Amino acid sequence: MSFRAADPKRPSLFYLEMHLSDRCNLNCRSCSHYSPLFQKNAPHPSLRAFKKDLSRLASLFSDVGKIRLMGGEPLLNPKAHKFLPVARKSFPNTDLRLVTNGLLVPTMNRATVESIRNNEVTVDVSNYPPTSEKKDEIKAFFEANGITYNFKTNRVVTTFFKPFALRLDNADFSYECPSAGFCVNLRNGKLAKCPMLMHVNTLNAHFGMHFPTEGLIDIYENEITGDEILVRLGKKVALCEQCVNVRAPWEAYGKSVPQISDWVVDADSAQ
Ligand SMILES: C[S@@+](CC[C@H](N)C(=O)[O-])C[C@H]1O[C@@H](n2cnc3c(N)ncnc32)[C@H](O)[C@@H]1O
Ligand code: SF4
Ligand code: SF4
pTM (2 decimals)? Predict the structure, then answer.
């Protein structure tokens, strides 16, 4: 890995998430990236746009502390292996991660295995109950293939948060950012403070809702700087006013269908 000298003109961005796929093979209730709402044949993000956006980001920021490539389930993208070197070349010093629910790890193809190793990627596995059932197989695959991974096998996910509320007068609601500001997302030239904002138009379109969408930052805006982006990322957006941190048991949809109440704690009161 090469090391780039710190650049006094470009600040460092602490954290970044990007999707390699919007869809998912598990479909958890209340997924904060709304993956269960994406069609099974939704096109995968474009490699060309991914490359262009990271190149632009590298002109604005000297480094990104951690980049987590995810989705959706990133291993559903058959070209996942082509995205990893692009991220690594754009930010040679970053802590590069591939975030997965683990279920497809044992069937990962050779190109992906090699790309993970060659680009010094750590695989973060979220330990859902179905993942936990396959934990030995998943770990054995990583170990046999020399892949660095982070898989907290003793901590199974049991709850997920429901992100939003319609009413803002309920004393039980906490308005603290449930992501603590550590979930900046980049897609098609726009940065969002969090995935809920980046993809909220998907929730709006699916259920006919009107959650506020403003607050995306155009990284191609004329004369924008990394410092200006950091200032804007630090500000609350309108959606934050409706964001709550209410936890519910983790569940996968299976044959059931997503409901608005999976994302909105007081959806029933509005009907
Ligand atoms: C959206 S997933 C994408 C990657 C992969 N499909 C996975 O689940 O690891 C990225 C991370 O967001 C977390 N996440 C998604 N929705 C959540 C929710 N409603 N509450 C808590 N964590 C959530 C997941 O557990 C995972 O660690
Ligand atoms: S595994 Fe669950 S959290 Fe991850 S993208 Fe799929 S639905 Fe969302
Ligand atoms: S909407 Fe605002 S408060 Fe909620 S997770 Fe996103 S940035 Fe945090």
Answer: 0.94
Q: Is residue 29 part of a domain?
A: yes
Cα–ligand 2 centroid distance for 91 (angstroms): 26
pLDDT of 178-193, one tens digit each? 666 679 999 999 999 9
- 245 pLDDT higher than 80: no
Domain assignment present for residue 58? The answer is yes
- For residue 157, report the distance from its CA to the centre of ligand 1, in Å: 10
| H or E element that contains 95 | strand 95-100
> In the chain, how many domains are there?
1
Nearest to 250 by CA among 133, 157, 121: 157
Q: Is residue 257 part of a domain?
A: no
Give the mean model confidence (pLDDT) for residues 152-156.
94
Bridge partner list, 124: 99, 150
Report yes or no on 188 lying in a domain.
yes
Pocket test for ligand 3, best of 235, 236, 239 (most atoms within 8 A of CB): 239
Please identify, by atom number, the ligand 1 atom nearest to the C-alpha of residue 24: 6
Nearest-ligand number for the alpha carbon of 192: 3
Beta bridge partners of 69: 18, 98
Domain range enclosing 26? 12-158+180-239
- Rounded to the nearest whole angstrom, what is the distance from the C-alpha of residue 179 to the centroid of ligand 3? 7
CATH of the domain at 136: 3.20.20
Task: Extract the tokens encoding 81.
Answer: 């292996």
114-140 confidence digits (pLDDT tens): 999 999 999 999 999 999 999 999 999
Instruction: Give the CB-side neighbour count of residue 114, counting CA atoms within 13 A.
Output: 5
